[in-house]
Amino acid sequence: MFFNSNIIEKEECNTGRQLELDVAKAYSIFIMIIIHCLAYSSLCISSQDDTYLYLGMYLGMAAPIFLFSMGITMCYTRNKTYQAFIKRGIHLLLLGFIINILYFLSNYGAGIGLNYALNSLLANDVLQFAGLSFILIGIFKKYNLKNATIMKIALIMSLIGTIITGLTFDNLYLTQFVGNFVNTYGTNIVSAFPLFNWFLITVLGLRFGSYLRRCNNKTEFYRNLLIPLTVICIVGVITFLPLENGMFDIIGLTAVQRANFFQSNTLEIIYSALFTILTFAIIHFIIPYIPDKIKDLILFASKNITIIYIIQWILILSILEINLFLNIVPSYLTTLVTILGVIILSLILTRIYLYLKKLIFNK
Question: Global pTM?
Answer without folding.
Answer: 0.90
